[in-house]
Design brief:
Layout (H helix, E strand, L loop, with lengths): L10 H21 L18 H23 L4 H13 L4 H13 L3 H14 L4 H13 L3 H14 L4 H13 L3 H11 L6 H17 L3 H14 L4 H14 L3 H12 L6 H12 L3 H14 L4 H13 L3 H17 L6 H13 L3 H14 L4 H13 L4 H14 L4 H13 L3 H14 L4 H13 L3 H14 L4 H9 L7 H6 L2
Length: 500
């Protein structure tokens, strides 16, 4: 190949060749090209106006700017010089002005870019790109409000442009102008070309506020989201209610949970949370709320469980047991295993209702599912001991509970109580003294110590511990009876408890 071939020419030579070729092409275009004909051509007057000259120069400099970008990178100083020259002759050509403005912004000349973009906007008021570049220029100058105004103007020109809403809302949130940001999102979600993206932005912003413990700001985002996300509305209001609970906004939380329950597709948790808030002041309302939830979500385990717990708390054991039986039936239908808490509550309710045999059956079913359920093992061992039933097996259950949690004072007390019921008083004393060391002053443990010392024939030590138990819990009738039976006056005991 020849040394002077085109491929061996320098970039500068390329640039000059291209400029020259572009000029010729421009002149040819402005003059009008003709092809050869058989007949002689008609003479044409070849005269360029001043405007034609300016346009040719502008296009030439513009092309030169493009070449400089290829050679030295976008928005390079050399390209900027060429674009600036192009702008002098462009007579308001938008493409050229935009290129010059972009180069100014890239080179830190925001004020000059703003002037140029103002001219572009006057010639093309419906194009959103000059407004976006204008916003960038204002951001470079630190004038965020002016940048936001430019983006808002762009939105008015193209209301469906999703990214414009995202950028503007982000800036407003950064300024903590949440009301303006949320109003913008409310306007945008129904009309933009990608509403899912705007909704996702709203949700993610809310989660971000939660992570920063700005719950009130998160609530605003979720309320906007709930307006347009019908399928998730109940979940969103349930979340809003939880945030309001955490903020101590009880009445607002009630309203949010109530709104969640009234949705076409409610979530079970909303009924449970609403009932929980109603229970203290209006237990009948709590029951009605849970019954409504069960009617609308008949296969949900949690609602039947919650209603069973409410009845148990109100000492309505027959209704509580009926609800727990419903849970048990639903569990069997689903071929599932209920949680340990269900067995504990169900069994405890049966015991309080006087059906110890049924309670033992429930606890033993739980142990079959989960042999390491130490809470159930301990409860069953203590219940059997209290009722004098299957004491050797109760001891096995107590030992298994302690194997799982050897430092539990409650579990040590249980095993000591089984020893006591078996007549093994010294072994009982060892366990319950250790329990008292781990949890001193517990009224049940000190009561048991009193019983053991009484069984060992030490009346003084027995009275000492029964007195301690009474001071910790004066409402225990069994302790009161023991003290009175031993001639102890109870009148001064509470005052002694208050003394240092």
């Amino acid at each position: 190949m020849r040394k002077d071939s085109i491929s061996d020419q320098t970039p500068s030579a390329w640039m000059h060749c291209a400029r020259y070729a572009f000029c010729l092409a421009t002149v040819a275009t402005l003059a009008g090209c003709s092809t050869a004909h058989d007949s002689a051509p008609t003479p044409v007057a070849f005269t360029l106006s001043t405007e034609d000259h300016d346009t040719a120069r502008a296009l030439t400099y513009f092309a030169s700017g493009l070449i400089e970008e290829d050679a030295h990178g976008a928005h390079s100083a050399a390209a900027m010089r060429e674009y600036a020259k192009a702008a002098e002759f462009s007579n308001g050509n938008k493409a050229i002005y935009m290129r010059v403005a972009e180069a100014c912004i890239a080179n830190g000349l925001a004020e000059k870019a703003i002037l140029i973009l103002g001219d572009v906007i006057s010639h093309a008021p419906h194009d959103i790109m000059p407004y976006k570049r204008l916003a960038s220029a204002y951001q470079q100058l630190g004038n965020t409000e002016a940048a936001i105004a430019a983006y808002v103007m762009a939105i008015t020109k193209n209301p469906k442009h999703t990214e414009l809403y995202l950028t503007t809302a982000t800036m407003l949130f950064q300024l903590k102008h949440d009301d303006r940001a949320l109003s913008l999102l409310e306007v945008g979600i129904p009309v933009v070309d990608n509403p899912e993206k705007l909704s996702a932005f709203c949700y993610n912003r809310g989660r971000q506020f939660i992570s920063r413990r700005e719950n009130e700001r998160a609530i605003g985002c979720f309320k906007v989201l709930a307006t347009f996300s019908r399928a998730q509305r109940s979940h969103i209001y349930n979340l809003i209610g939880q945030l309001q609970e955490a903020m101590g906004m009880s009445e607002q939380a009630l309203d949010s949970f109530r709104t969640a329950t009234q949705d076409e597709t409610p979530v079970a948790e909303s009924f449970a949370r609403l009932a929980s808030r109603q229970l203290q002041d209006a237990p009948n309302k709590a029951i009605s709320t849970l019954r409504e939830g069960i009617q609308r979500l008949p296969e949900d385990l949690s609602l039947a469980m919650a209603l069973g717990n409410v009845y148990a708390q109100l000492d309505d054991y027959p209704e509580s047991i009926r609800m727990y039986e419903r849970v048990s039936s639903l569990v069997k239908q689903a071929n599932a295993i209920p949680p340990e808490d269900f067995f504990l509550r169900y069994g405890a309710t049966c015991e309080r209702a006087g059906n110890v045999a049924k309670a033992a059956e429930i606890f033993e079913n739980c142990i079959q599912y989960n042999p390491s359920s130490h809470q159930v093992l301990n409860y069953l061992a203590y219940m059997l001991a209290e009722n004098g039933l299957r004491l050797n097996q109760a001891m096995q259950y107590a030992n298994r509970a302690l194997t799982e949690n050897p430092e539990s004072p409650s579990y040590l007390d249980t095993r000591g109580w089984v020893h006591f019921k078996l007549g093994q008083y010294r072994a009982a004393l060892d366990d319950i003294v250790q329990a008292n060391t781990l949890e001193p002053g517990d009224p049940v443990i000190t009561d048991h110590l009193g019983d053991i010392w009484s069984a060992l024939g030490n009346r003084d030590r027995a009275l000492e511990h029964w007195t301690l138990s009474y001071r910790a819990d004066a409402d225990n009738p069994a302790v009161v009876e023991k003290l009175q039976a031993n001639g102890v006056s109870l009148e001064n005991l509470p005052a002694e408890a208050a003394a240092p």
